[in-house]
Amino acid sequence: MQTQEKSSKKERREALKAIASFFWQYRRYTLWGIAVLLVVDAVQLITPLIIRSLVDRITGGTVRLSDVPLFALAILGIGVIMAVCRFFWFFLLIITSERIARQIRSKFFTHLLSLSQRFFHTTRTGDLMARISNDTEAVRIACGMGIVTMVDGFLFAAAAIGLMLHLNPRLTLYALLPLPLLTLVVVKFGRMVHSRFQAVQARVSDMMEKIRDTFAGIRVVKTFRQEAGELERVREVSWDYVEDNMRLVRVWGAFFPLIWLLAGLSTAIVFYKGGTGVILGEMSVGTFFAFSIYLETLTWPMIALGWLINLLQRGTASMVRINRIMNVRPEIADVPDPLEPSAISGRIEVRNLTFAYGPNLPNVLKEVTFSVEPGKTLAIVGRTGSGKSTLVRLLLREFDPPPDSLFIDGIDVRKMKMRTLRSLFGYVPQDSFLFSETVRENIAFGNEELDEAAVTKFAKISAIDKDIADFPKGYDTIVGERGVMLSGGQKQRVAIARAMVKAPHILLLDDCLSAVDTETEAQILGNLRESIRGVTTLIVSHRLSAVQLADEIVLLDEGEVKQRGTHEQLLKEGGIYAALFAKQQIERRLEKDA
């Protein structure tokens, strides 16, 4: 329990330091905004003194009729100055908070892009979305209105108390008697607001993740007629959010009445003691009047203190949540002084590669060894779960292979700069992801300057050009979220075109023709054969028809290389490859007969 409390305090300190560092970066705007805010407070504090002078003259019978307009103009002038200055402090401090929010979002998103695949496998998308939206907004408000409330409240209170001491020190001490109680209330409620707001933000993450998950799987929901069930689950998580929010509201709802009660207590004391002083002639009416105005203005700093605690606790709680992600270090990172070869031929070598996804998990690959010469095509085949895709992911360093096990042009992939390494590959996964943009933008992804002729050329290579011609707007057709408007085969072919646009040194095709019919598959393979001359190519496939023309075929089974050779050699050799080929030939004949 003590360890948890220490960790929580440390997180809050780090959050406050992070917020302070943002203010330091925009200190010019902040300081100018505070300076203008101080002008507003100073001018506002002059008003009671002017009223005091006027009241004392009226009660003393020394006021002249011509004095009244002068006093009125003085107060009007103060009002004009306050209006102008309020605009400028609002503009300067709020623009600072908006820039801080923009920087937080930018840093957070940049950091997310640097994290490894495993992080995204174990972290919910809705949680990340809540942090980049709701939590960032809470920090923005704390940095905007929070700084205004803090500076305005504390400095205004200090100045008001100073002037009250100047008017009547004894009465000021009576007015401040409830202050210790106020301190206790603020400390107690501040802690409660912090913990309960963290719970609220966690519920926001749950709700966003549930809604995102439902929309992402909307076709499954509708197919299984589970609309009512999903609605009920969203209602449950929404109700949990409401309940946690109400727990926060109950604290927050009790906080302000207590502040007003303490403010009212101060006012009652002042009216009793001050009224008695006026009756006994110990204080002038003007002084009592001015003192009462200062006491009334002192109510705002007391209320401001409540707002400040709320805003800062919410902002700090949100910054803690953001920092927890920012403190996650990427598992896959560049080594010190990584290598950046100026020329790449594309030779791939795998040496005694053994790999498991975790320390307590079984090996997915066992002592795998092979090489691919530059410009050659290697096919990797095998049953489901034999480790084919794992090899591809290790080459891309989605996961780190063991040292001295994977090489490109004789360089260990772990020692090569990651951006350089990944720039070498054109990669087409089996589950082809498309962005909710046009067909053209998906093909030209990362190469936005690509002209229409080039886009058309790569569409022809992947045999998607005729399909695109039938789309309502051709290449300008929106494919929908994750390419929902396209079939599985169409998505795979768009992904192949996208990979070819990159003009890679090494092309990785990971079972990317699994959703394509055999006739289209043959057409694509024929087009690719012409286009990838000189490009080192790895074809991962469970369909042996896609790998027959490879320069060499490696068959994996249970993570081990069981057979290797050309298509003809492996058929003559018999074994697993020949059995798989015979089985697939029968399946193809049955499909044709059907």
Summarize the helices and strands and which ones pair or pack.
Elements: H1 2-25, H2 27-60, H3 67-114, H4 117-122, H5 125-167, H6 169-175, H7 179-216, H8 218-223, H9 227-279, H10 285-326, E1 348-355, E2 365-372, E3 377-382, H11 388-395, E4 406-408, E5 411-412, H12 418-423, E6 425-428, H13 439-443, H14 452-461, H15 465-469, H16 488-501, E7 506-510, H17 518-531, E8 536-541, E9 552-557, E10 560-565, H18 567-573, H19 575-593
Parallel strand pairs: 3-8, 3-9, 6-7, 7-8
Antiparallel strand pairs: 1-2, 1-4, 4-5, 9-10
Could you give a short description of this structure?
By secondary structure, this protein is α/β, with parallel strands linked by helices. The chain has 3 domains: 104-326, ABC transporter transmembrane region fold (Up-down Bundle), CATH 1.20.1560.10; 343-424 and 504-594, Rossmann fold, CATH 3.40.50.300; 430-503, Rossmann fold, CATH 3.40.50.300. It is built from 19 helices and 10 strands.
Overall description:
The chain folds into 3 domains: 104-326, ABC transporter transmembrane region fold (Up-down Bundle); 343-424 and 504-594, 3-Layer(aba) Sandwich (Rossmann fold); 430-503, P-loop containing nucleotide triphosphate hydrolases (Rossmann fold). The strands form 2 sheets. Strands 6-7-8-3-9-10 form a 6-stranded mixed sheet, with helices on both faces. A 4-stranded antiparallel sheet has the order 2-1-4-5, with helices on one face. The chain is α/β, with parallel strands linked by helices. It is built from 19 helices and 10 strands. It has helices at 2-25, 27-60, 67-114, 117-122, 125-167, 169-175, 179-216, 218-223, 227-279, 285-326, 388-395, 418-423, 439-443, 452-461, 465-469, 488-501, 518-531, 567-573, 575-593, and strands at 348-355, 365-372, 377-382, 406-408, 411-412, 425-428, 506-510, 536-541, 552-557, 560-565. Helix 9 (227-279) packs antiparallel against helix 10.
